[in-house]
Amino acid sequence: MKFKLKLLAALILGTLSLPGHSRVYEYTIKDIYGVEKSVSADSAKLNTTEKIQLSLISGLDRKIRVTVKKGDANVYSTTTESVKVADRIKSSSDEEFYGKVITMPPLSEGLYTITSEILNTQDALIDSTTQSFLIDTSGPTADNMRIDQRPGYDMVLTGNLWELGLGAEAKLYVTVKNVKATAGFDKATIQILNPDNTVYSKMDMVYDSGSASLSVPWTKGSAVKADWMPVSNADTEYRFRVTLYDKAGTRKVLPDQKFLFDSDLGEYTLVAVYDPTAETSVIPGFSKGYVEYKSGMTVNLNPITFVYRVPSTNRREYRKGGLAFGNIISEANGYSYVSVTTPYQTLSVIHNGYQWGGPVLPTILKWVQMRR
Predict the structure, then answer these.
(1) Counting C-beta atoms within 10 Å of the first and last residue's C-beta, which end of the chain has fewer, N or C?
(2) Phi then psi for 79, rounded to 5 degrees?
(3) Which top CATH class is 146-262?
(4) Pairing state between β 290-292 and 269-274
(5) Do the beta carbons of residue 353 and residue 322 sit within 8 Å?
(6) Does the pLDDT value for residue 72 go beyond 80?
(7) Rounded Cα distance, 225 and 242, in Å
């Protein structure tokens, strides 16, 4: 029995001592943001300016000679002591193996090759493996945000402040072109920032490798806003912020783009109906002829003239994002009084800023009974 145990132990030690090959299993770094992380040798893209720790796999009773080159220049080399049973390494992925951990000094940006050589106890070469790794701390680059489409409707698509709206049938996009990343492009996000710098929303941008460009729609088409865009009456200054990420973990923030967005009609209230027989008026500047609107009321004329009260700041005459419909017949206390004349059972459209048309005013059938 003792003989069998000794034989088994000898076989195990003999197996563990077979030459095999050496290689880098993973790199452990502190990245440029101060975060410690492990990077697999398969990925081997590092964003660090500090020391680099290598976890090397090897058989027992073998030394490991490591040589690092940048191009043809040797930048680092070392030879470890023999790997012993105590040199059991547990990786970041919880795998265990025999080997050595060495620490290299900080290296500059660029592509490197690392050769791991197994030496026996007499320093004779048994096997070698060459791998590569990249150090890139510069991160991805790209052109500034832009809008290539020209939807019209008085939108402003260049300069310090964009003025955006719902347009018409076409989907409208924010784009970023000329995306480059030495370590390989990973992803990009776009945020909308409120005036107080809080984040209103965040979206992933779509990357097209063929054109090296990014895009994200701000409308769904058919004059409908994208879900991530705010509800606004072009009266709040937001900012787009695009962040690019590469496969080394480095991120780059493009310059913010300020914008106004009009997706909301704002305030407008139906307040009166024209009645030539009325001896009084509820509209400032008129002594008679306008009666208070009431749901289901009876009117005396066809076509019918309705009057809406609209904040003057929400009229196209005073602000590009304002409403355009009817005619202003009176102004008082910061409001414009707008008349709309329409035949019975005919619809009238409100024209909102930066878009084709707009919603339909409620039909008179909901409110009016015609006097025969």
Answers:
(1) C
(2) -125, 130
(3) mainly beta
(4) antiparallel
(5) yes
(6) yes
(7) 19
Identity of the residue numbered 118: I
Same fold, 24-135 and 146-262: yes
CA–CA distance, 295 with 283 (Å, rounded to integer): 18
Question: What residues have CB less than 8 Å from 47, skipping those under 6 apart?
Answer: 29, 31, 32, 135, 136, 137, 139, 183, 246, 248, 249, 250
* Residue scoring higher pLDDT (293 or 256): 256
Asked if residue 365 has pLDDT above 70, the reply is no
Domain range summary for the chain, segments of one domain joined by +: 24-135, 146-262, 269-370
Lowest mean pLDDT among 8-17, 74-83, 268-277: 8-17
CATH architecture under which domain 24-135 falls: Sandwich (2.60)
Torsion angle defined by CA atoms of residues 7, 9, 15 and 16, in that order, rounded to the nearest 10 degrees: -160
Q: pLDDT grade, residue 19 (50/70/90)?
A: very low
Stretch 199-227: mean pLDDT, rounded? 97
Q: Are 281 and 288 in contact (CB under 8 A)?
A: yes
- Do 194 and 223 contact (CB within 8 A), yes or no? no
* Total Cβ atoms within 10 A of residue 224: 12
Enter the pTM of the model.
0.84
Per-chain mean pLDDT for the chain? 90
What is the reported pLDDT for 172? 97
